[in-house]
Amino acid sequence: MPTLDYLDRLEAEAIHILREVAGQFERPALLFSGGKDSIVLTRLAEKAFRPGKFPFPLVHVDTGHNFPEVLAFRDALAAQLGEKLVVRKVEDTIKQKGLQDPTGKYPSRNPLQTYTLLDVIEEFEFDACIGGARRDEEKARAKERIFSVRDDFGQWDPKRQRPELWNIYNGKIQKGENVRVFPISNWTELDVWNYIRRENIALPEIYFAHERQCVVLPGGQLLGLTEHLHLDADDEIVSRQVRFRTVGDATCTAAVASDASTVEDIIADIIQAKVSERGATRLDDTISETGMEDRKRNGYF
Amino acid sequence: MDLLRFITCGSVDDGKSTLIGRLLYDSDSVSLDILAALESRGAAQGNVDLALLTDGLKAEREQGITIDVAYKYFTTPRRKFIITDAPGHVQYTRNMVTGASNADLAIVLVDARHGVIEQTRRHSIIAALLGIKHFVLAVNKMDLVGYDEQVFRKIVADYQDITKLLKLTDVTPIPMSALQGDNIVRRSEHMTWYTGPNLLEHLEAVPGAEETKAEPRFQVQYVVRPQTAELPDYRGYAGQIQSGTYRRGDKVQVLPSGLASTIKAIEINQQEVEQAVAPQGVIIRLADDVDISRGDTIVPVQHVPHLTRELEATLCWMAETPLRAGRRFLLQHHAALVKASLPTILYRLDVQSLTHLGAEEARLNDIVRVRLKTAVPLAADIYRDNRQSGSFVLVDEQTGNTVAAGLIEAVDPDYFTVAEPGAVAFSI
């Protein structure tokens, strides 16, 4: 009799959720950024649906502020899987809608992703969008359902969530509504890395320690140097051995100083780390205490 | 390393949030940036308010209330833990039913100063109703009663009534102070008279989910048909083994059609395996080309469940609008979604005393016994035999909302013609 460990159980739960999406919805999509969480989702989708094709395309909402090695990885993985990749650019949404491209020193396009996401949902009439969000990431996420119903405007209302009982997921929606589905809700950052190690999953190089030109922020955090930052003459640029814990928008996702060059090193690093993933790296969550909750209410994934 | 899901039951005043905060804090699961945020929110210097670790939403902080079930995680070298944190007051029953539906263990908190109260009874009844087998009687705030052994002994003795009423077989009483950290993660220096495990030791040792002991159940979630040049005829039934073990070569029956076949292959991640157990996700392939679709159940012939269009069930009503007899719903029995009508409300359950009360309707948070008819036969079990195949939800056809949690109590067709309504004992 095989005994199942916690990773087997988390994996089984995620596969069950992915298959519920395939069984309940007509036009689902898998939101795919080329980051570790969505890469893990593609592995779980292989386990759920092979030898068949995925019953959904991969969809990337590209802020235009990504690191080039992540985009190259994204394209290579989609090709290797032989699955359809849809890319829609925030840049195009800004032009079409006449939106204000953010200015300032660190012009994050994260809030603008919501417009492009809602447009791509409308364009393809997606009724479910699978995402790699985890409840351990942020306090508002800890309260979100695995099947999270959003209204016609993509809005999340924490007070009107459906009760979610046993492992029964109710995906019944009205026209115009859609569901965001989070199969790895119950995974922590460490669980994701342990799974990456167990499954031998390839990741963009940016996750591993490498020498990189960085801007030193007033709080001491390191931002990878890209053309999208608007620097002042007295900004300090240093060359450091760094890795990234998340690969969001390059203008608001800080690197961490690290020598971890293998998955094993990273796991050891995380066990030692005393700062949470988002606390270490996401500048946009610290703008206000409810940054994430406010964005989700407006349709952010 | 395995996984344990547990729920904490208690009102805010019992120290539930402090207990969760203490578990996270003393197991080094709280990051420095999170602690810094707590300290900046006016906590006394050097004394973090651990209760603040568990509230997440703006409205909760503004109004000082807990809106909804939240999930917290921590890991020790022995286990990964998922804490289901169901709020203690507002919309009480509905949230506790939601949280208890997935839990393997319940921590029932009692304030040492107040002893066993009505809430203790309610918490225990609902946890037992939802099929939780393992209980911790957490006698908290022992620091406020001078760490007095007699106080603890009295509460343990008082809880015996509940243990007997609910036929609980595994109750572990632990005296503790979540605020001071006594017997949570570290052994208390103040209660040397207590020789049992501390809370974390117990949580690490208690048996986890036991779904492999029930009869084999498997529902088809999705049919995999690649229709490629290499695999023109491949037809695999993808789903999760809900309970028990499945083996290659098992003679099986497909429900509701009743068609018979044999398991030709069980695949996990495109590898054929001899057998698989709950809760693994698998693809099952059959020897015969039979018509099977989502929601169908495949079971070994020696373990066939009841196939029925009539059910008696316990419901927790979760909608603002009251339930009245005669309504129609969608009934979601995991992957099976069928139309259902609810001709009769038999009675309402008093969750203090387990007695039956008359009921014309069910209101938000009521627990009622009902009869249901389904448009298509369901392959169903009784909840106390199988938490998977014995559970369902009711969905409002107009809004799509989940309006009730359902626990199947009786499925035998003979029962409905001969027995008195509600004659089957409350299934604890």
Automatic annotation (TrEMBL), chain A:
Q: What keywords are assigned to this protein? A: ATP-binding, Nucleotide-binding, Nucleotidyltransferase, Transferase
Specify the Phosphoadenosine phosphosulphate reductase domain's residue ranges. Answer: 28-254
Gene Ontology molecular function: any one: sulfate adenylyltransferase (ATP) activity
Per its UniProt entry, what is the enzyme's top EC class, as one word? Answer: transferase
Gene3D superfamilies, alphabetically?
HUPs (3.40.50.620)
First and last residue of the signal peptide: none
Q: Name the Pfam families for this protein.
A: PAPS_reduct (PF01507)
What EC number(s) is this enzyme filed under?
Answer: 2.7.7.4
The answer on whether this UniProt entry bears the keyword Nucleotide-binding reads yes
Superkingdom of the source species: Bacteria
One biological process term in Gene Ontology: sulfate assimilation
Q: Which family does it belong to?
A: Belongs to the PAPS reductase family. CysD subfamily.
The name this protein carries in UniProt is Sulfate adenylyltransferase subunit 2
The record lists the lineage as:
Bacteria, Pseudomonadati, Bacteroidota, Cytophagia, Cytophagales
UniProtKB/TrEMBL annotation, chain B:
Listed CDD domains? CysN_ATPS, CysN_NodQ_II, CysN_NoDQ_III
GO biological-process terms attached to the record: sulfur compound metabolic process
Query: Which keywords does UniProt give here?
Result: ATP-binding, GTP-binding, Nucleotide-binding, Nucleotidyltransferase, Transferase
GO MF terms, alphabetically ordered: ATP binding; GTP binding; GTPase activity; sulfate adenylyltransferase (ATP) activity
Q: What Gene3D superfamilies would the database entry show?
A: P-loop containing nucleotide triphosphate hydrolases, Translation factors
Q: Is Transport among this UniProt entry's keywords?
A: no
At the top level of its lineage, which domain of life is listed?
Bacteria
Residue span(s) of domain Tr-type G: 1-217
Transmembrane segment boundaries: none
Signal sequence span per UniProt?
none
EC number(s) per entry: 2.7.7.4
Q: Does the keyword Signal apply?
A: no
**Pfam families named in the record:** GTP-eEF1A_C (PF22594), GTP_EFTU (PF00009), GTP_EFTU_D2 (PF03144)
- Quote the protein name from its UniProt record: sulfate adenylyltransferase
Which organism was this protein described from? Answer: Hymenobacter aerilatus
